[in-house]
From TrEMBL:
Source species, domain of life: Bacteria
Species of provenance: Aerococcus viridans
Name of the protein this chain belongs to: Transcription termination/antitermination protein NusA
Xref: InterPro entries: KH_dom-like_a/b, KH_NusA_2nd, KH_sf_prok-type, NA-bd_OB-fold, NusA_N_sf, S1_domain, TF_NusA, TF_NusA_bacterial
Gene3D superfamilies: 3.30.300.20, Nucleic acid-binding proteins (2.40.50.140), NusA, N-terminal domain (3.30.1480.10)
PROSITE patterns membership: KH_TYPE_1
GO BP: any one term: DNA-templated transcription termination
Upper lineage: Bacteria, Bacillati, Bacillota, Bacilli, Lactobacillales
Compartment(s) where it occurs, according to its Swiss-Prot or TrEMBL record: Cytoplasm
Single GO cellular component term: cytosol
Assembly information from the UniProt record: Monomer. Binds directly to the core enzyme of the DNA-dependent RNA polymerase and to nascent RNA.
The S1 motif domain, residue ranges: 133-199
Family named by the database record: Belongs to the NusA family.
Pfam families associated with the record: KH_NusA_1st, KH_NusA_2nd, NusA_N, S1
Length: 447
């Protein structure tokens, strides 16, 4: 091994950042394999490289044993004592077996190892550089496009736009500049692979950060994005400064800021809406440009019924349901849109009563009667002792509550029943009073 090769190792360390020790370690391992392959030797060998002299030596490593079974791997204790009386059973002894022409093999092997290490180092450097761009946008140049993939040059590496990352019907010209969102970077056996996207919602977010300084510095915040790439998107924004209008800031003077984003996405329509922590307000804003009269939330669900004017129904739903679909995605709510007339009819249906009825929650530890824990007359008397009595009709009414039979008609019927009972009680008292008066008059006459 020449000293020129050593200087080459040092140059690699300076230029590629590859440690000389790493190269030498890999070289020694490769030389062991080359020795066994070229000299058909099965012994346990080591290769030592003297970095100062540039000399390579090959050693066969043998174990000291009483009885030699394999001369390539073992040496007798007697032969070991001929070398040094200090050797004992189980010790390892190195015997130099360097072939005379091993320098040629070593040079070829060193060249291969150096080239391999250089490729690995370059891949590692590239991977470490582009992994930092994950979840960010880069500007690339379109190299080519086939039936499935678009290939974009990002400088040191060629990125791929897979089918799911492409905007429907978007085409490119060779050498066209395009902005892409770096979705993930993978370190494969063939080197680092960068997967980018044009349809990811985060591309839209990064473009707004690029075009709107107030978003970049955090004054205005993007709270949610709903996107149907290439067609239409909705972006919910809020200002952290009371003096700054979030929507107007994103739109820009005469729409200049948002227009640059629309142009980059080749005409994708953009709705910028005001975010609110009040969900009813947020849903109303999300259905822009339609006017919303009221929002009715289904108890216990992330769904609601939105009422709009008759002449805004188609506007709220949108073409092929797109406006409603994007609003639902933006607010993470299932939205059912109805006109005033349709909603008035809807509230008379059983479906409305079932979906919007208040849930009656029973604490079983507090009320064993409603909980259904009373199984005998004795238990009932023990529970109700000292309390107001409950007749059979009251229990039946409780059964209705448990079965969920609660609605306007049921409540009116119960009110009518109560009023009827009160009237009956009053009538009975009046009758009793009249009988007492008659009896008093007869006694007075007899007296």
């Amino acid at each position: 091994m020449s000293k020129e090769m050593l200087r080459a190792f040092e140059a690699l360390e300076d230029e590629k950042g590859i440690s000389k020790e790493v190269i030498l370690e890999a070289l020694e391992a490769a030389l062991v394999s080359a020795y066994k392959r070229n000299y058909q030797q099965a012994q346990n060998v080591e290769v030592n490289f003297d970095a100062k002299k540039g000399v390579i030596k090959v050693f066969a490593v043998k174990e000291v044993v009483d009885l030699v079974m394999d001369s390539q791997l073992e040496v007798s204790l007697q032969d070991a004592h001929d070398l040094n009386n200090a050797y004992e059973i189980g010790d390892k002894i190195k015997f130099e077996v360097t072939p005379k022409d091993f320098g040629r093999i070593a040079a070829q092997t060193a060249k291969q190892v150096i080239m391999q290490r250089v490729r690995e180092a370059e891949r590692s450097i590239t991977y470490n550089e582009y992994i930092d761009y994950e979840d960010d946008i880069l500007t690339g140049i379109v190299e080519r496009q086939d039936r499935r993939y678009v290939y974009v040059s990002l400088g040191k590496i060629e990125a791929v736009i897979p089918p799911e990352g492409q905007i429907p019907n978007e085409t490119f010209q060779p050498h066209e500049r395009v902005q892409v969102y770096v979705e993930r970077v993978e370190n494969t056996t063939k080197g680092p692979q960068v997967y980018v996207s044009r349809s990811h919602p985060s591309l839209l977010k990064r473009l707004f950060e690029q075009e709107v300084p107030e978003i970049f510095d955090g004054t205005v915040e993007i709270k949610a994005i709903a996107r149907e790439a290439g067609d239409r998107s909705k972006v919910a924004v809020v200002s952290n400064d009371a003096n700054i209008d979030a929507v107007g800031t994103c739109v820009g003077p005469r729409g200049s800021r948002v227009q640059r984003i629309v142009d980059e996405l080749k005409g994708e329509n953009m709705d910028i809406v005001q975010w609110s922590d009040d969900m009813a307000t947020f849903i109303s804003n999300a259905l822009n440009p339609a006017d919303v009269l009221s929002v009715h939330f289904v108890p216990g669900e992330t769904s609601c019924v939105v009422v709009v004017p008759e002449n805004h129904l188609s506007l709220a739903i949108g073409k092929r349901g797109q406006n409603a679909r994007l609003a639902a995605k933006l607010t993470n709510h299932k939205i059912d849109i109805k006109s005033e007339a349709d909603f008035e009819a809807y509230i008379q249906t059983e479906e409305y009563a079932e979906r919007f009825a208040e849930k009656v929650l029973v604490d079983e530890d507090v009320d064993p009667i409603l909980a259904g824990d009373i199984e005998s007359a004795e238990e009932y008397e023990a529970v109700t002792e000292g309390s107001t009595s409950i007749d059979e009709e009251d229990l039946l009414a409780m059964d209705d509550l448990e079965e969920g039979n609660v609605g306007p008609e049921a409540i009116e019927d119960q009110i009518d029943d109560v009023e009827g009972e009160d009237n009956d009680i009053i009538d009975d008292e009046e009758l009793i009073g009249e009988e007492d008066l008659d009896q008093q008059e007869r006694l007075n006459q007899e007296g």
